[in-house]
Design a protein that fits this description.
The complex is a heterodimer of chains A (about 290) and B (about 375).
Chain A (H helix, E strand, L loop, with lengths): L1 H44 L1 E2 L8 E2 L4 H9 L1 H32 L4 H9 L6 H12 L4 H9 L12 H25 L3 H9 L4 H30 L2 H6 L7 H10 L4 H26 L6
Antiparallel strand pairs in A: 1-2
Chain B lengths: L1 H32 L10 E7 L5 H11 L2 E8 L2 H13 L9 E4 H10 L3 E2 L28 E14 H4 L5 H6 L4 E4 L2 H11 L9 H16 L5 E3 L3 H7 L4 E5 H10 L3 E4 L5 E11 L5 H11 L2 H11 L8 H8 L1 H5 L10 H5 L1 E2 L6 H14 L4
Parallel strand pairs in B: 1-2, 6-7, 6-8, 10-11
Antiparallel strand pairs in B: 3-10, 4-10, 5-8, 5-9, 5-10
Classes of the chains: A mainly alpha (about 290), B alpha/beta (about 375).
Amino acid sequence: MSASVERDAQGRRRARWTPWLLLAPGFLWLFWFFYLPLSALLRMSLSTKPSRFAVPEFSWAWSNYEQAFSDYGSQFTRSFTYALAATSIALLIAYPVAYVIAFRGGRYRNVLLGLVVVPFFTNFLIRTLAWKTILGDQGAVVSLLRTVGLLDANEALLRTPIAVIGGLTYNFLPFMVLPIYVSLEKIDPKLLDAARDLYSNTWRGFRKVVLPLSLPGVFAGSLLVFIPAAGDFVNAYYLGNAKTTMIGNVVQDQFLVQNNYPVAAALSFVFIAIVMVIVAVYSRLLGTEDLT
Amino acid sequence: MARSNLSRRQFITRSGLVVGGVALAPSVLAACGDSGGGGGDANGISISNWTSYIGKASIKDFERATGIKVTYTEDINDNNEYFAKIQPNLQQGKSIGRDGFVLTDWMANRIINEVEWAQPLAAAKATNKGNIRAALAAPGFDPTRTYSLPWASGTAGIAYNSEQTGEIRTMEEFFRAGGTKTVLSEMRDTIGLLMRADGKDITKPTYADAEPSFDRLQRAVEDGEIAGFNGNEYVSDLASGNLAAAIAWSGDVAQIARDNPKIKFVIPESGGTLWSDNFMIPVTSEKPGLATEWINYWYDPVNAARLTAFIQYISPVEGAADELAKLGGDAAKLVDDPLVNPDAAALAQVSIFGPLSAVEEQRFDERFAKIQGAG
């Protein structure tokens, strides 16, 4: 009798620890690979260097943040403007594509999805460099636009904001298509039948049924495009010019050329903060507690 | 419903992992980069160099001649990037897994004099050191060539597609020429050429002297006279016709011009820059003797000629030209190529960008970064 009570108590004690044990690998991972590097970055962002090539020393140097804000405002603005443009264009392209695959794809669904993904098996850098050839002055796109009269003889596409935004859109497009496809695909066709039974036309059915149910996919897709696009530096480096540099280019320059780790770290933190605010506002607007 | 919900969640988690993986990959790679290195073998060394700076056969020749095993890695792409890569270890006196690397004059100055990460070459093993060209024997950063020996040299000038721009002779003609133009992201070459156009002495550069050149460059960027800043990427753009003209390096252009005679290279009338990439031994190497044997081998004019025939940059070794002529065939033609074997008149046109103090260098770098839109 007393033995079984003891066993119960033991079991309860063990049960109390089980969730913690289950969480431990995750916590350890986060601790080692997220909080530790992040705190090192934070420390670096508040350090100063006695001389240019010396090891930075921690000294509560808030001036790094002052410099990050005052000197690089235009690059921050540009990063988020370009990322917003790329996200919007990607959404306009991806939604119809995902819609067609989900509702009209039939047995070709998997093939169509594969076609969306396959180009992205190519290396990211190669894909970006390919756009240099496509948009180059001797390329087909420019000569076509010149024939049609949309471009003057001395106007170009390469090394313009259009090229940078285009590159960002292209490189992150599948991250928009796939989540939207998943959320469209799970919509029960009976809901659309019901809408039709209630004398709703196709457009209204889309607006009242399909669109609201696909919002979680739109939300996830926008974040998966917006965040990496805002931090990207490859597209601006290869497709842009000196007037299209983004915050990633500044961080790269500060780290690798200027050897100014503290300012680069401060820039990274400001970037993280801005992204967090944008994501918070955005998730409030779209109201997607369903997502996580 | 529950099932599809789960799959969507899985999907999002997985996409998140992919995105995270892509974001993390470069830093993980960078962290792994230099851990091992060759040279674990007592009779082996590990060398870092730029791409296209040696032929594979040449390494075998060296190994046969000396019995020293070489792990040769082409992992230098940019002076600043390589510096950033070796900095964390050398700053703490830890090995970078290399017994030698090759960096441009100004970076050699930083390595030898500012951060002091180079150790002297083993004098007893440097028996061919006397074969160095007189013009390169006593640079400001290493007047007795105790710590460094040049691997190869080249000049910066203007490359242009004569069909698109017509003839270009001066920096102003370069800026005014039609079509898309770029300049080098290597600050000393771009600013050096502009300072020379401005009549300034680049062997003793000061910010005050360089300021008008920076202003000129900034105006060129703002007015759209130049479209951007390039490393080696201008090579493919010039060849494909996407660039009308560019500030460029002689050796690269020599290679394009052979396939495409419309591409010309000219040193502006006001003068060009001359640079060398210098071999140095890091302080952490335990085999300075073997590493010195490596560079010493290439200072034998016969070996220097073979190297030059392959890489087609200016050899720092006196007598290499005579040996090139003896090789015959295509190699012998290089003797008459002023880009590979410049005569006295051509050398008089170019000069070396002198050392900058740490404070001055930071001012130069910051201003240059601002003009590039990254500062």
